[in-house]
Automatic annotation (TrEMBL):
<dbReference type="InterPro" id="IPR029058">
    <property type="entry name" value="AB_hydrolase_fold"/>
</dbReference>
<dbReference type="InterPro" id="IPR000073">
    <property type="entry name" value="AB_hydrolase_1"/>
</dbReference>
<protein>
    <recommendedName>
        <fullName>AB hydrolase-1 domain-containing protein</fullName>
    </recommendedName>
</protein>
<dbReference type="Pfam" id="PF12697">
    <property type="entry name" value="Abhydrolase_6"/>
</dbReference>
<feature type="domain" description="AB hydrolase-1">
    <location>
        <begin position="22"/>
        <end position="259"/>
    </location>
</feature>
Length: 283
């Protein structure tokens, strides 16, 4: 594995004083700002730690994302946090990273993955579905311009293919997409390759999860990237992960159902923190 400089971003003073840490990994073409709602968690003694993706949030574009390297850095940081409760939270490709990291840690660590990336990026089914959706978006906007096509495709990411069939999701998807357009990360300048290659190469966790039930997957039943059936098969293969499905939602659950962050907090705080002097994490 290529040796990389540290990538985690955090406030050292805040982390030192916190009783609880939540380590967050975003998804492809996604900034760590998606975790801004976690600022409200400070009232419960939480401090956030972020793993930014290549080319975003001050991180250089090269080298590209490596799932195993990211998971190992997160796990090493978690193991060093004696006396603190450590939880992991990821979105999409970040979900794959935190699941992989969880296999390296002890049974007290809780993990939540929102619309998690699947091994080999979902394989040929996901590749064909994404190709169809992007081509459909290009036909609807009658353009091959990356930004115009991406904004149309983003609507499908929000609510799935049903966005085209129902007036409420059509309008809501337009509103949400327009609101994010100014801060949208587009698949340009090598970003998509730098973010997606790692998930395509990831064959799944190399180790068994200490407690599969301590990993929760939050998914939309209309996710056009990774279907609910694909996610359930993955969950079963990992020993029976907790899968919670949100009807009527697609891949971008953090936008269409912001309560996922409240749910994550409830899951994390449902277990008592590790006792003083023990980190609750291990090799």
């Amino acid at each position: 594995m290529t040796e990389l400089p540290p990538q985690l971003v955090y406030d050292a003073d805040e982390v030192a004083e916190a009783r609880r840490l939540v380590i967050c990994a975003p998804g492809a073409l996604t900034r760590v700002e998606i975790f801004d709602p976690l600022r409200a968690w400070r009232d419960g003694g939480w401090a956030p730690v972020f793993y930014p993706f290549p080319g975003l949030d001050g991180r250089p574009l090269a080298p590209p994302l490596d799932i195993q390297a990211a998971a190992e850095e997160i796990a090493a940081f978690a193991r060093a946090q004696a006396g603190k409760q450590v939880c992991l939270l990821g979105f999409s490709t970040g979900g794959a990273i935190v699941i992989e990291a969880a296999t390296r840690l002890g049974p007290k660590v809780r993990t939540v993955a929102i619309a998690p990336g699947l091994p080999r990026a979902g394989g040929w089914r996901t590749m064909l579905a994404a190709t169809r959706d992007v081509l459909g978006a290009a036909l609807r906007v009658r353009s091959v311009g990356v930004r115009r096509v991406w904004l149309e495709y983003y609507r499908v990411l929000l609510f799935g293919r049903r966005v085209l069939a129902h007036s409420d999701t059509r309008e809501t998807s337009r509103t949400l997409t327009a609101a994010r357009a100014a801060r949208m990360v587009y698949p340009e300048g090598g970003l998509l390759r730098a973010h997606a290659t790692g998930l395509k190469r990831w064959a799944g966790p190399r180790r068994r999860l200490p407690v599969p039930g301590h990993v929760t997957l939050l998914v939309g039943d209309a996710d056009p990237v990774f279907s609910t059936a694909q996610t359930r098969r993955f969950a079963e293969a990992q020993g029976g992960l907790d899968v919670r499905v949100f009807p009527g939602h697609g891949h971008m659950l953090f936008l269409t159902e912001p309560s996922v962050f409240d749910i994550a907090r409830e899951i994390f705080e449902g277990d008592p923190p590790a006792p003083a002097g023990a980190s609750g994490v291990s090799d």
